[in-house]
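Request: Not sure, any thoughts?
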Amino acid sequence: MDCSRRTCSSRRPGPTELRTLLLACCVLPWAAACGHAGERAASGPEAKKDELLCVPSDTGFLRARLKGSIEADLDWAAGVPQCRGGLRPTGDGVRLLFKGPGAKPDEPLLIVIGIGPLRPGESRSQVPVNLTLVQEGAGQFFATQGDDKCAMDEVRQEAIGPTLFRLTGRGYCTQPARAVQGEGAVLMSRFDVEAVVDFGAAMAEPTYAQADR
């Protein structure tokens, strides 16, 4: 569903999507443990399986301004390791994961941007966005809990491999992401992104091949 600066769709993330996000917070290869200090991420074969949630990428960036409970100007580009983007758990768009330094050295930020609906290689304007921010160390979660508060002005995709696409875009939020528990909110009024997105799972589906005929 398209959106304007006044209205977007109102899809809320389902339990599977939220559970995957919480898991990703704790298994990113270069991430500090989230939540309480006594909690640890999985180890052994289970951890290796979970690390598939984040395939490291040599390219990509996030530039954004945060206001509210977190005040920071983000410029995560060269030298800040990132993940490849991938298909949303709901299968209707892409999910981008970014992590980098926040306002406090001991509280890095994890930012997850869900964009959709969006198909492999598709370029569009005014695409709804679901936004989640995790302040590690402090264990704080902020979420728009729906894609009616943020959108991409435009999204462009360029094929760089059989299932890989370079996604670039600029977005905005008209309302903040609010604390999942407790009080507080963070507004990411403008943001620019670039990421490598792997659509392998989506392009392997028979429905994708039929749609392209």
